[in-house]
Amino acid sequence: MLFQRVKPLDKILETAEKKALTRQLGAFQLTMLGIGAIIGTGIFVLTAEAGQKAGPAMMVAFVIAAVVCALAALAYSELASMVPVAGSAYTYTYAVMGEAIAWTVGWALVLEYAVAAGAVAVGWSGYMNGLLASAGIELPTALKTGPMDGGAFNVLAFTISLVITGLLVLGTSKSAKVNAFLVLIKVIALTAFIFIAVPTAKDVNFQPFFPTGWGSPLGGVGVLGAAASIFFAYVGFDAVSTAAEETKNPNRNIPIGLIGSLLVCTVFYMLVGYGAVGSIGSQPMIVNGIALHPGTPEMAAACAGSDALVCSKEPLAHVLKMIGFAKVGNLIGLAAAIALPSVVLMMIYGQTRIFFTMSRDGLLPEALSKVHPKFKTPHVVTMITGVFVALFAAMFPVGILADISNSGTLFAFMAVAAGVLILRKREPNRHRPFRTPMAWVVCPLAIAGCLLLFLNLSMYTIGMFFGWAIIGLIVYALYGYRKSELARGVDHPNAPKMDAEPPFHEGPQA
To answer: Does the pTM of the predicted model rise above 0.85?
Structure first.
């Protein structure tokens, strides 16, 4: 039977058991790790997208997304602590729910990592274009954004994606100190924004508070539609959950680290949202009583020549420029320009390692797990991934890319939450360094929350997700089903040795 083709958990764990990591991380360190991993492109870029979908009620959307993310994080942590090896949700589901589901999850993770990397690159280009404009260098409009967003080809997003791909092929490796410095830059930038923008808030800018209502399934707008987009701003918590093997008293400290980092980031995000809305307003562009979807030609046309927050490609810098703090706004833009490429790097890195693992399992061609003889990196899959990321970034707007990324992430989280419950029934006595509290309440709520947000993505996004899933099933039927190591009765082969140190010691960041 297809769904009985399961890779034994003990075999997966053999790799992890060869090396024992020292348990040295406490609750504070985990919380700081989580904050660093979560704060990224989402808050710097998607504030304008959330404003277009929900208006001032975007602040409610931040809370809804955080709650769903917390539930998913608690479920994710149990499997991450049990299977502390490469492959993310793909590996977990292979061990629990079988090869077909694992393939589907791994295929969906392309949306979480590769498409998200494109979204980050587009977000970076928005801030970079703003910086160039402030220096008197103006790119042609056609080269600033993709064809769906009023341009033709986003040359900066395309270029930064290829540059980072080249760095990954060469095996560049950054230290944790460099990463901590970049995290500090982002936190300082957000703190400066809050201190300047919040005192300028005016009550009139919050009226009406719910201009688009709560939204409806497949609508993509309203508070729930904004929450579905804002979910992108919280992804990265798996930096905490995957650190379970190095955590002292994980049953106590992992929930503190997860919930603590999500709480801190939610407060940050709500203050940023309050400052942005209160200072210049964020009423959505509405035509014939319907809010326009961000990243569409109609939205681009409505925003032509507009200074509205919902039209900005560099929303936080734009707010400060509009209230008379242009120099600080440029510094915010500079902070984003410096820090965000590291997020693109981490996401492309994560994608290549998932493809590497799937290739090693025989589900993708063996050529994808080839390691460069000099650089010790999986150069083939890195170059292929990088080219696709660059094309995504060049052709699509940030909001659409973020939503497509969210669709894959939400699907993977639902599969992981279901996997926790299945494994609780199948192997109740297996050692769990971290146990999801009230699993039979938390996991169903995580599945329901992820499904709620998934259904509040736009029909376009959901259509893209299912189209991608169908392509994946065809690829699996034609190749992976026959070629996988389990299908051929082959033990997990020895992986080629490669540069195992990630560019940053943290999870993917949005």
So the answer is: yes
